[in-house]
Structure formats: structure tokens, C-alpha cells
Amino acid sequence: MTHAIADSRVPALLDFLSVSPTPWHATATMAQRLEREGYRRLDETSNWQLVPGERAYVTRNDSSLIAFRLPDSHTALTSLRMIGAHTDSPCLRLKPSPAQASQGWLTLGVETYGGVLLSTWFDRDLGLAGRVQVRHQDGRRESLLLTVARPVACVPSLAIHLDRDVNSGRAINAQTQMSPVVMQLPESGDTPVEVFHALLIDLLEEQHGVRVADIIDFELGLHDVQLAAQSGLRGELITSARLDNLLSCFVGLEALLEADGEQGALFVATDHEEVGSASACGAQGPFLADVLKRINHYVGLDNEEGYQCLVQRSLMISCDNAHAVHPNFADKHDAGHGPKLNAGPVIKVNANQRYATNSVTASLFRELCREQNVPVQTFVSRADMGCGSTIGPITASEVGVPTLDIGLPQWGMHSIRETAGSHDVALLIKVLVAFCNREVLE
């Protein structure tokens, strides 16, 4: 008899994944969740008046978010339990002037964002989503989210009859072969630019119920409209776009919300990790340090020494998914360090500091897993293969906080549709809640 894994968090995770096609949508969704739980929104341009027991959050660029909770007593905050993730995922982003005509069809010029696994984008039903800057009829400017969740585009494959060697391996040219087809051009004589401009205005009216006067600028991308799902004969799997790294965003936020609040805890989800994190709202930027300094001011040690004491007494757990052993490509892993789906969180290690883990930070996480009766795995790349990186080393070097890198195992990283284990979600949340509740971090 088949049955799905009974975990109340899985449906909530699937909903979060499905309604978060871009970093702006993910941040807005997390902000709504925080406000439902009593967290108040702070504005970076205003003075913060924090109080004991404060639960608050702040966003930057509408695509990065930091949420934190303070203990009930001023004197109790001597350290912070920090969980980090990132909101962005590899995708196809529209160029600033994307509209182009080809054989009577409107196609869109795109550029790749991050390390996209391009082959997986062919023949998928694609929607359009992102952030649009508009001018209203009264001259007012506004930033609007656009969410087109129905199929409006596709990147059609070339028939095998016209490329007999395709299954032997063919390079994909993102400039000439990845343009999504949107619609058949009308015979009105309107240019592709005019057609696309009118199309955007129609889509915004469809979603927001208002007819804008003009589109000033936009940041838009394509996304797979297939909803996230729990799959496998017994519900062992989760399949979705953007598991890397919205899965970690969900887990980290849930852990913060489920913590008992006795200790200082913070969750940070930054944008632009997939392209190096070098931005004002990325992990290499000052966002986290800016918030920590404001929290330090609340503590009453409003000086550099007090700030350094707070940072060095704290700990950052950087959460970003790990490569699970693929059943068809087991040789791509080191034989002794091949994480498996549904076998618990993974400690990520790299001798060249592509991950920030060291024996001290790893041992604390192993002890947390042991205390919570949660299995723990270790990932190390093969010595003859390169290794990706995370926000962990960047945060450690920019802020100076002791850090380790962990994540949940997954298959198909950077594919348009990735796969993870449904058991693992509750396991990592359990450990991270224990981390947030831990009285002593040493």
C-alpha cells in the first residue's frame, strides 16, 4: 500500500515554492509569514527603537530579508544564533530590450542568471515574473510585482531529424538558441517592442486591476509554471523549481518561528548568491553587518569592541543544499562522502575554504544532531572535481562570525526542476530549532 509522508510542513513548503518564482516574491512571501506571526517590519531609513522580546524583520532591495528575535532581558543578549540562506536561483532573465521578431513570432532575448542547467529549460511551460517599475496616470512611480503563473512562453527543442547528433552531446548557445517564443506577431504592423510593451501593461492590469500609463523599467525572468509536488510512490520526494535555495529559506524561517525565544536568534536570506553575492543586498555586501550593529546598539554596547564581542560569541549556520548521490551517476561522488536523500542534513567541507566549516563549528552541529537524534551526513567533493561555494565563507570573511556550511541533499542542482527528500525537511528544522534554543554556543 502506498502512502505519502505525513509531515504538516511539506504542504506549506510546496506552497512557498510555488508562489515564489523570483527573489522578490520569495522575500514578500516570507515577510507576510513573519507578520502573521507577530513580527513587525523595520525601515532601514528610520531609527530603530528595539525593546526586550522584540520580533522584527527588515528587507533590502525587496529581495533580501533579515528577521530576528531578542530575548526578554537586555542583559540576556550576549550572542546570536544565526541561520543564513539565499533567495535567488539560476534562471533565464530578460534583457532590458528583449522583444525581437523571428519568423513571424515574438521571441524574447534572455541572459543566463547563475549557472543554469540549460538543457532542462527546453519544452517547458514557462511563466513570467519579477519586478516592474511603472508610472501611473497621475505621474506617480511605483514598483509592482508581476506574477504570470500560466504558460505564456516556451523554448522549443529542435527536432532530432534536424540534429541527429544531439544525443551525443551538443553545446547550447544561450544567445541564439534559448530565446523563449511568446506569441505570434499580429498583422497590425506594430513593432516587437510595441507589442511587448502593450503585453506587459495588459499583464499588470490583469494582476493588479489598474491600467498603468507607462513601463519605466523592469527585472523579469522566466519560470516553470509546474507547481511544486510531493512525489515518489510513498511520497519520499519533493520536486520543484528553486529548491536551491528556497528550501533552505523555508527551513531557516520555520526554525526561527518555532524557537522558544529565550535566546537571541536571527535568520538572513540574501540575494545574488548565484552570481557571487557582490551587491548591497548580497552576502558580500553590508546588509547583515548593518543590522548586527543596530542590534548591538540596542544591547547598550554601542562601540566597536562591544560589536566584536557580540559577533565572536555568535555562530552562523549557512544553509545551502548539498549534492546527493545520484542513482545513475554514483561515480561523481567520493565513495566515503556521498550524502543520500532522506538520511538527514549534510555538513559541507572543503579544504580550500569553498565552505566555511571547520572542526569546531562542525562538532557543535554534530552534537546538536546527536542530542536531537537526527542523522547527519558529510559531503566532500572528489579531489579531481571542482567545488561550488555558498554564503558561508563570504559571511565569515565579511562579518567575522564563526560559521559552518550545511544543507539538505538534493538531485539535479540548477535544473529547472530539482529533487529533494521529504523526510529531510522536518529533520533539519528540528536541529535548527534546537540551535536557536541552545543556551551556550561554545
Structure description:
27% of the residues lie in helices and 26% in strands. By secondary structure, it is an alpha/beta fold. The protein has 2 domains: 9-89 and 241-437, Zn peptidases (Aminopeptidase, 3-Layer(aba) Sandwich); 91-224, Aminopeptidase i, Domain 2 (Roll), CATH 2.30.250. A 9-stranded mixed β-sheet has the order 1-2-3-13-4-14-18-16-17, with helices on both faces. Strand 7 and strand 8 (141-153) form a beta hairpin. The radius of gyration is 23 Å and the shape is globular. It comes from Cobetia crustatorum.
How many discrete structural domains? Answer: 2
Mean pLDDT: 93
Main sheet specs:
9 strands, mixed
CATH topology of the largest domain: Aminopeptidase
Please give the structural blueprint.
Elements (H helix, E strand, L loop, with lengths): L8 H10 L4 H14 L3 E2 L13 E6 L3 E6 L11 E6 L4 E12 L2 E9 L12 E10 L5 E13 L27 E4 L7 H17 L5 E11 L4 E3 L5 E4 L2 H16 L6 E6 L16 H13 L4 H10 L1 E5 L2 E2 L22 E3 L10 H13 L5 E3 L11 H9 L3 E5 L1 E3 L6 E4 H16 L5
Parallel strand pairs: 1-2, 4-13, 4-14, 14-18, 15-19, 16-17
Antiparallel strand pairs: 2-3, 3-13, 5-6, 5-10, 6-9, 7-8, 7-10, 11-12, 12-20, 16-18, 19-20
Helix pairs in contact: 4-9, 5-6
